[in-house]
Amino acid sequence: MTLKKMTFILVFIVVLVGSCTNSNTNDNSNDNNKNSQDTHFVAKHDHPMQNKDSIASIKNNIGDSLYVVIEKADSVMAYLLNGRLKDTINGLNNFKIIETTLLSDSLQNIIISYVNNTENFKLSKFKKKCGFKPDLAFKFYKNKKELLFLLALDCDVFQIYCKDGTRILDYKDDFDPGHDKFTNFKNNLFNIN
Question: What's this model's pTM, rounded to 2 decimal places?
Answer without folding.
Answer: 0.72
